Amino acid sequence: MKVLIVGGGGREHAITWAVAKSPRVDKIYAAPGNAGIAELAECVDISAMDSEKLVAFAKEKEIDFVVVGPDDPLAAGVADAFLDAGFKTFGPRKNAAIIEASKAFSKDLMKKYNIPSAAYETFTDADEAMKYLETIDAPYVLKADGLALGKGVLICQTLEEAKEGIKEMMIDSKFGSAGNKVVIEEFMTGREVSVLCFSDGKTIRPMTSAQDHKRAGDGDTGLNTGGMGTFSPSPFYTKDIDEFCFKNIYQPTIDAMAAEGRPFKGVLYCGLMLTPNGPKVVEYNARFGDPEAQVVIPRLKNDIMDVFEACADGTLDQIELEFEDNAAVCVMLASDGYPVSYEKGFEMKGLENFKDKDGYFAFHSGSKFNDEGKIVTNGGRVIGITALGKDLFEARANAYKATEWVDFENKYMRHDIGKAIDEQ
Fold first, then answer.
1. Which of 323, 325, 326 is nearest to 396 (CA)?
2. What is the model's pTM?
3. Does an H or E element contain 382, and which?
4. What DSSP string describes 79-147?
């Protein structure tokens, strides 16, 4: 079987690693891939957004199965292009990926189908949004409606800060067109948990839980990022909570999308807040989280291709997901200055330390080969150092130990990933 993986981040590296383990797969291509993915797949210089070139390449190479990884291509209809050309594809169509691409759509969906979430209002006029802020209590949650690389959410502690946030989003266009429409949400308190779910449009299969760390600095300080690290499983996500979420969130969401004529096939990411009044949805994503994929996929016991095909074929009811009875922690090594401004092009040293080390992974998020063939940094989030352990404490110790094996100029990381597990 020949597989094409669309994307070039840490999520796609983790997916490629799992696909490469499948005995059914003979050849993997990645477009565009990165320097880490290149060890497992043949990388081709085609943008993840260029559906025309991607489909032409798939036809030329007689690809058997396509996996579309990132949010932007899914929202732009790249999966549609493959499906319409007759390729078996993992990833939702554009009309289903809107569950992530539009915060207003997903909030309206939850309200219509009684899926628990925070109270909210949607605005397209900045003055109206600022007037509304004066009628509610702090803290304030502002969400850009469209995709903003995981950074389009502001949590503001004062009215002045919230009004400045509206100005940045709606007037100054800090997030581009994503901020033309803004959702203002009730601030929820509690533990955050992420649960990724496979779906074939009818059946949903939740994976093991995880928790992401979005803020750039230790102690959850600084700006929101694409994710500075994560751990799995969450000790706060109990069997009772899982049963509640399946009955009131996961299956109702898939049923709602089907009822709206938008059957969802792929990975539904449910960001949850475990509030004093029960679990509520913070947000949906239409794909594997990044870096959640880096801790969830290494714990999956199933052949991932079996699951991907079942989602594409509508036979997920025949699959039972199994996960290792262990834990995983991922610490993201970033470029100092991320997510605002940072330099790239620095040589990455020590990657050979991960070769043949069972239970340790270096999933590349932003890397490339320079003209001399050396691996250099090529992004704000550079590499996700992931380690397994018998429990979360061991996995965290292993992950932080492994962060010392790789080095590059302006290397930056948080030092408290998984600290919440000390409080369980």
1. 326
2. 0.93
3. strand 381-389
4. HHHHHHTT--EES--HHHHHHHH-HHHHHHHHHHTT--B--EEEES-HHHHHHHHTTSPSSEEEEESS-
